[in-house]
Amino acid sequence: MREAFAFARLRGRGRCSAFAVALATVCVLAGCGGSSGGDATASTGGGTVNVGVASTLSGTFAALGVPGLNGIKLAINQINHSGGLLGHKLHLVTADDQIDPSTGATVTRNLILNHHVQVLFGSVSSAVALAQAQLAERYNVPLFLHMANDIGLTTTHFSKQIYEISTNTDMEPAAAALAFVKFFGKGPVRIATITPDYSFGLDTVSAFLHDLKKDGVTYTVTTQQTPQLGATSYTSNISAVLSSNPQFVFVGEYGGDLVTLTKQGIGLGLFSKAKVGGMYGWDVVKAVGRQMPAGVMAWNRGAFWAEPSTAMSAFVTAYKSAYGAYPDEWSINGYDAAEIWAEGVKKAGSFDASKIADALGGASVPTPRGSITIRACDHQAEVTEDTGIVASSVNPTYGVPLWSKTYAPPVKQIIEPCSVP
């Protein structure tokens, strides 16, 4: 999803990259010389095909990586239960990248060279995903990204082996800006921001403010707070925000960091003194529980309760049966990524990475989130972002306050034209 290190911020939209510092390191990690090519598995017949997942499976960010892995596991198990893929059973091989690019490159290379995986599902971190992308290109192995979402992965660092299944770092803040207009109007409004002090957070805020202006919102920025990723106290940041007297607070924190900020913000009166917006998906709302403040503007890459389609309901039931819990956005995106890869294999009639790329480019694949088209030019999935307003009462089915209003902006309004070099 996002790199956990303070890489240089690259300004602008459309072809931004968060990896300027990591790139030189990745070149060394990936090795020099020509591609050796991946193992060519027969397109039909029996046997086992290895599927690789190199993600963050320990530490704080395992709260994202493990649910994403569970979504992939569920898809793989369903495929095997239905007879496998092109006559092959799928075997899942996992590795913990420890949200570190060097470790991520090492374990990913091991999956390719020693386990001969025919597909990779990538990291929580966009910095690790860059290392994985370099290896996927060298060894001709498809890499599906369901959490890491820096737009540079499908622009300045794009190769035909890379697929982005989530909204990228241009699309997500664009959706949040459109939601702001829908729920709160066009101002004038005083805005404060709190976001982690590294490229994802800084660029997300910049893009959000850029899109507000593009969408006709009149605003002034009262303060911009940039705590370190993984901070344990946001008291000084929240106090500074409140002192600036904003009407809306854009929060770029996520996961456990957003939970911590929210609980501290409740105690300091943040949510009673200003409107707040952030990535309040199932994982965060569940962790905050019944204290979750009403009226918060939320955005999320897969709000299952906001998408009550037959396919989504079936997925939620299957996931809950398998893991005893409801899925979060990472689970949903992981499941979709595995389903899209499998559909590419079927369309290609082969596990060959180049044939899969040809088959998936421009193709639409049914998923719990609906039919998803993989853009031919850059392999960005044409997906939207779910947004909403947190309700004032507890949802009787789920036991926590969820969104009482929902809005999914049209994809065409949040996706930029292709800008692959």
Describe this structure in words.
The protein has 421 residues and is an alpha/beta fold. The protein has helices at 20-30, 62-81, 101-113, 126-139, 171-184, 199-214, 235-243, 255-268, 270-273, 282-288, 310-323, 329-348, 353-360, 411-414, and strands at residues 48-55, 89-96, 120-121, 143-145, 162-164, 189-194, 219-225, 248-251, 275-278, 297-300, 364-367, 370-373, 386-390, 403-407. The longest helix is centred in the N-terminal third of the chain and has 20 residues, at 62-81. The protein has a seven-stranded mixed β-sheet, with helices on both faces. The protein has 14 helices and 14 strands. Helix content is 40%, strand content 16%. The two termini are 23 Å apart. Residues 2-43 have low confidence and may be disordered. Strand 1 (48-55), helix 2 (62-81) and strand 2 (89-96) form a beta-alpha-beta unit.
Q: How would you sum up the major sheet?
A: 7 strands, mixed
Shape: globular
SSE arrangement, N to C: HEHEHEHEEHEHEHEHHEHEHHHEEEEH
Provide the residue-averaged pLDDT. Answer: 89
Percent range of helical residues:
25-40%
Radius of gyration: 21 Å
Distance between the termini: 23 Å
Task: Determine the number of helices (DSSP H or I, runs of at least 4 residues).
Answer: 14
From the structure provided, what is the oligomeric state, counting identical versus distinct chains?
single chain
Strand order of the largest sheet: 7-6-8-9-10-13-14
Overall number of strands? 14
Task: Give the class from helix and strand content and strand pairing.
Answer: alpha/beta
